[in-house]
Design a protein that fits this description.
Helix content: 10-25%
CATH topology of the largest domain: FAS1 domain
Strand content: 15-25%
Oligomer: single chain
CATH architecture of the largest domain: Roll
Largest sheet: 7 strands, mixed
CATH class of the largest domain: Mainly Beta
Structural class: alpha+beta
Number of strands: 13
Strand order of the largest sheet: 2-1-7-6-5-4-3
Distance between the termini: 32 Å
CATH superfamily of the largest domain: FAS1 domain
């Protein structure tokens, strides 16, 4: 299981035996920008895409920047995945955000990387920036999708890490799927007997604020009820109400916007009480308190806050 909070530094393991992976030029003099390095390492599609949406000028600026750079093969795989026959079929606004989702403000070399979430430069709702999940369990993986093949290609204004897949921008469902610590939540949201299509709802435009119980939170819930040994034992009406109770629709509430004692209405129809005196804590209708463990996992259509207890409405 991927820990939700890991702050241990990790050094990338390079695995660039694939002949199709560009071989970095010698940038020890650090005299070229990120765009210059990309041009001299045959990132043809990436460079063309950057130029098309005027991001080449940005990445030739002072920075510093960290760029997770997809190879040409990575872009080709994305086009096959999307079932489109060319990047020109992707509109400029969407392409720009996809590219920005590969850029992190500041220079993050391999020895500085930590497991957990990092903000990219892609735009989320309400002036936020989309998060990317860095998993160091087995090499370096981003959003449980893209793997770093070659780290630390240095430039005068930052660093490039070469990756094997384009990092698509996650919505709230995608972000939950990408983190193994939300596996039981995903099972709950996709239970076949639910009358609400939570996947479709939470994949829509939003925005949403989601308080997402970790796997341990669900295990504690099951352990606390003698009638429930598994998720399937929870009556469908109860499960549906509980899941809705964790969602605030129509707003993207980040941790900095939480005020002590605020009582937003949930998707279930009743309110929760949120306090920020001792960290962010949610008090449910039964006076049980859940604490936010990870705040501000920002997606394209909302924000996720990981919590340590399942909150329960009046049933």
């Amino acid at each position: 299981m991927l820990p939700l909070v890991v702050f241990t530094a990790f050094t990338f393991s390079a695995c660039s035996d694939d002949d199709e992976t560009p071989t970095p030029t010698d940038n020890t003099t650090m005299s070229t920008t990120i765009v210059d390095v990309a041009k001299t390492n045959d990132f043809t599609i990436l460079v063309s895409a950057l130029e098309r949406v005027d991001l080449d000028d940005v990445l030739m600026g002072d920075g510093p920047f960290t760029v997770f750079a997809p190879t040409d093969d990575a872009f080709t795989s994305l086009l096959a995945e999307l079932e489109i026959d060319g990047l020109d079929k992707v509109d400029d606004a969407t392409l720009k955000q996809i590219l920005l989702n590969h850029v992190v403000d500041g220079k993050v070399t391999s020895d500085m990387l930590t497991a957990g979430y990092v903000s990219t430069m892609a735009d989320g709702p309400e002036d936020t920036k989309v998060s990317a999940l860095i998993d160091l369990t087995n090499g370096v993986m981003i959003n449980n999708r893209s793997t770093v093949s070659t780290p630390d290609v240095m430039a005068s204004n930052g660093v490039i890490h070469i990756i094997d897949k384009v990092i698509t921008i996650p919505n709230s469902v995608d972000a939950a799927l990408a983190n193994p610590s939300f596996s039981i939540l995903v099972q709950a949201l996709t239970r076949s007997d639910l009358t609400t299509d939570f996947v479709a709802t939470l994949s829509s435009e939003g925005p949403f604020t989601i308080f997402a119980p970790t796997d341990q939170a669900f295990l504690d819930l099951l352990a606390g009820n003698d009638d429930w040994d598994a998720l399937s034992d929870i009556p469908v009406a109860v499960l549906e109400a509980v899941l809705k109770y964790h969602v605030i629709a129509g707003t993207n509430v980040t941790a900095s916007e939480i005020t002590d004692g605020m009582q937003p209405e949930t998707f279930e129809g009743s309110t929760i009480t949120i306090n920020n005196t001792n960290g962010v804590q949610i008090t449910d209708a039964n006076m049980n308190v859940s604490t936010v463990q990870i705040a501000d996992v920002q997606t394209s259509n909302g924000v996720i806050h990981a919590i340590d207890k399942v909150i329960i409405p009046k049933l």
